[in-house]
Structures are given as structure tokens and as C-alpha cells.
Design goal:
This protein is 39% helix and 20% strand.
């Protein structure tokens, strides 16, 4: 692929758009790296603008991605290596950045088939939120509800944690906590709270019914009113002296148990 004119000015409008999105959220999302752009293409995400540096063309996988983009009619703007590096969140950039539209999911997609949902309340760590979305997709969940106060599932750190799952797992974001519970009731889905102690053992609960696992923030856990409104509480028995797991690890344990029960 022949090199085109390479932008070297940091005042270029595209560079400004990329920098603005790097520093905050907005109507678009910033994708960085070959793998994440590949995942977006596979998921049918609409790419508005793609920026590449000569570094991308020096790698076989990068060249293959650029050919795919060209074949799909996605215009690629060329930026100097130093500019892309300055926009990167990682120490060594792969030389590919993209501005993409955020996926939009219908409510019916979240509750399709025999619903199994992950519902997050106040989960503010974007890396943990992204990993939760990844675990939910891997366990076969139908979707996720990410309530108001959660991190942005399409921020760079969350996207890095989900590794493309956020493009595919149907989700509804920004619901008020009570509205999320009301939606579950309206859809006939049992709200089951993950609790550090005092609940039924997670593997004794019947997850074959339409179910939603309610998960709280890393330190605070679920709000008292949410836990009180749940149909039941489940707990993961642990060997002493361990008292708790990271929220993503706990969610993975429970959701994969749900998947096991549903397979059998």
C-alpha cells in the first residue's frame, strides 16, 4: 500500500478530534490498536475516521487491517508516528486509531430468548466494567444493564478490558437503579443480588429461570435498597482467610455456574 501524505501538525483538525475524545467521553468512541479495530469491523461497528501512522504499515497484521479498511471503503488518514504516539494510551502504539459510532442495542436484544443478565450498580472502575462485560459475554449472558453512576462502557479503558465484547453484548446504559429493577420486573426476570455473605450458595440457586445478577461497586457493594428489593441473595463460599473477590471474578464464577446449569 503506497504511503499517502503524512500529517505532521498537531493542530490538524483530525488530531484535535482524536485528542478531545482521548481526554473525555462523547457521542463517538476512540478505538486504539489493531485488535480493537479488527473487532469493531467484525461486529459491524460504523467507523467514522481512521488514522494510521507508518508504524502500522510496517507490521504484517497492521498491513492486513489497512487492506481490509480500504476494501470496505473506509478512508484512512496518515499521521506521523510521533503524533499517534502522543495520542496513545499505551507505551508502544501499534499505529492505528479510529473514531467510531457507539453501538446501539434494542431492549428486546438484551432480553432475547431465555434472559441472563449482568446488572452493575455504581461500578466506576472502567477496567473492571470492561472485564465484567467480557465475562458476561463469555458465559453466554444475553445482555447487561449498566446503571447511572457506572463507568462509560465505551471509554478507552473499558473497551480495552472488554476486548471487543462491548461491541457485541447487548446493553442498556444510564438507567436509574430503581428503573433497572422495574425493567427486570416488567420483563419477568428475577433480580438476584450478589452478596459477600448471608446469601444462598450461588450453586444452589436455580439459574435456569430468567435471571439477572445484581452487582455492586468494588468497595461499597450493592446499595442497601437494591439488595433489599432483590428476590434473593447469593454468596460464593470462600476458604479462609479470603473474604471477597474482585467484582469481575465474582460475576464470572456465578455466571459460568448459570451457564453450566442451563447446558444441563
Amino acid at each position: 500500500m503506497a504511503l499517502r501524505e503524512v500529517v505532521k501538525s498537531r493542530s490538524n483538525p483530525l488530531v484535535k478530534r482524536l485528542r478531545a475524545l482521548r481526554e473525555g467521553s462523547g457521542p463517538l468512541m476512540l478505538l486504539e490498536g489493531v485488535k480493537l479495530v479488527e473487532e469493531a469491523l467484525e461486529a459491524g461497528v460504523s467507523l467514522r475516521e481512521v488514522a494510521a501512522s507508518p508504524r502500522a504499515e510496517r507490521q504484517e497484521r497492521g498491513r492486513a487491517l489497512l487492506r481490509r479498511l480500504e476494501a470496505r471503503g473506509v478512508a484512512v488518514r496518515w499521521l506521523d508516528d510521533s503524533i499517534v504516539a502522543s495520542l496513545s494510551h499505551v507505551e508502544t502504539s501499534q499505529g492505528v486509531l479510529a473514531l467510531a459510532e457507539r453501538p446501539r442495542f434494542a431492549e428486546d436484544a438484551v432480553f432475547r430468548g431465555h434472559p441472563l443478565l449482568a446488572v452493575a450498580f455504581g461500578l466506576q472502575n472502567p477496567g473492571n466494567l470492561g472485564a465484567l462485560v467480557r465475562a458476561a459475554e463469555a458465559a453466554g449472558a444475553t445482555g447487561a444493564l449498566l446503571t447511572a453512576g457506572c463507568a462509560d462502557a465505551f471509554s478507552w479503558k473499558a473497551l480495552r478490558g472488554s476486548m471487543g465484547s462491548a461491541f457485541r453484548l447487548p446493553q442498556i446504559c444510564g438507567l436509574e437503579p430503581r428503573a433497572a429493577l422495574a425493567l427486570l420486573r416488567r420483563r419477568g426476570v428475577a433480580a438476584i443480588a450478589a452478596s459477600a455473605n448471608g446469601g444462598v450458595s450461588y450453586d444452589h440457586w436455580d439459574w435456569r429461570r430468567p435471571s439477572a445478577l445484581l452487582l455492586g461497586a468494588e468497595a461499597a457493594g450493592l446499595p442497601d435498597e437494591i439488595e433489599a428489593a432483590a428476590e434473593a441473595r447469593v454468596t460464593i463460599p470462600m476458604a479462609a482467610p479470603v473474604e471477597s473477590l474482585n467484582v469481575t471474578a465474582a460475576a464470572a464464577v456465578v455466571l459460568f455456574e448459570a451457564a453450566r446449569q442451563r447446558r444441563s
